[in-house]
Amino acid sequence: MPDGIVVIPTYNEKENIERIVRNVFSLQRKFHILVVDDNSPDGTADIVKRLQGEFGEQLFLLERKGKSGLGTAYIHSFKWILERDYDLIFQMDADFSHNPNDLIRLYNACKKENADVAIGSRYKTGVNVVNWPMSRVLLSWLASKYVRFITAMPVADTTAGFVCYRRKVLETIHLDEIKFVGYAFQIEMKFKAYLAKFKIMEVPVIFTDRTRGTSKMSGSIIWEAVFGVVKMKFNSLFNKMTI
Fold first, then answer.
1. Angle between helix 44-55 and 17-25 (nearest 10)
2. Residue ranges of the chain with pLDDT lower than 70?
3. Residue 208 resides in a domain
4. Does pTM surpass 0.70?
5. What is the reported pLDDT for 220?
């Protein structure tokens, strides 16, 4: 049995899900996959069920009743995984913005370089983003700079969603105490790992915007991050934040 499992949250990803699953399973390093689907009306879950007939106990599916946010999808999946024997837990998007080949590099950062959290970083060595308009590149880059300034985390890409966690990180963090449900969930997880003094390593990757399907980014997600980060830091200063 592989020691790593890749969590892929989905909502209306029928154009991408089969391709991403097959790409991950074609890697030289073997991983299991857990798809967490938020009741996609386009039939994403049905595609995964069909693929389960081919891949058996390598591919798992958790179906949720509604669209409840990225953070809750990951928390739901983490709890499921911690009931099993996986040591490395990866999170990545279904839309190929994260290159499946880079899973091996994140794996090696944890296994060979003893990282507790390995981040697929867009900003570790400059700005490595393809096919985004300049306005979105600036928004993302400035958001990471802002978060780093507020939290003092030594992380260049604080909002990255391509991450590998060692099991002990997820066992240490109180998952039920995670406050953010949108993309700011990524920030909060890194911040809690930082507060717990886990070793965080950034692995430079090239982020390529989706070519199929629709982005889930929205204004409310951005504002959650902007205002939530200040509150998160404030609570940590006055010991009101549970790791």
1. 30
2. 210-223, 225, 240
3. yes
4. yes
5. 57
